[in-house]
Write a structure and sequence with these properties.
By secondary structure, the protein is mainly α. It has a domain at 2-41. 80% of the residues lie in helices and 0% in strands.
């Protein structure tokens, strides 16, 4: 759970940072990067972590 919280915080930081850079510069490439992070950044961590957990080889008790 801690890992998911940290990933979300980093994702939010990247999203916020990219938006601030775009707001100050008006650079279209930065805006496109912002949109890419917005679409992929918040969906990926939970799906990735759930997939990794399912793929673990846990010993049978």
């Amino acid at each position: 759970m801690y890992l998911i919280v940290m990933i979300r915080k980093v994702g939010f930081f990247m999203l916020d940072f990219t938006w601030k850079v775009f707001s100050n510069t008006g650079n279209v490439d930065t805006y496109l990067l912002f949109k890419e992070i917005e679409q992929e950044g918040f969906e990926t961590p939970e799906a990735y972590i759930n997939e990794e957990i399912q793929n673990l080889d846990l010993p049978i008790s």
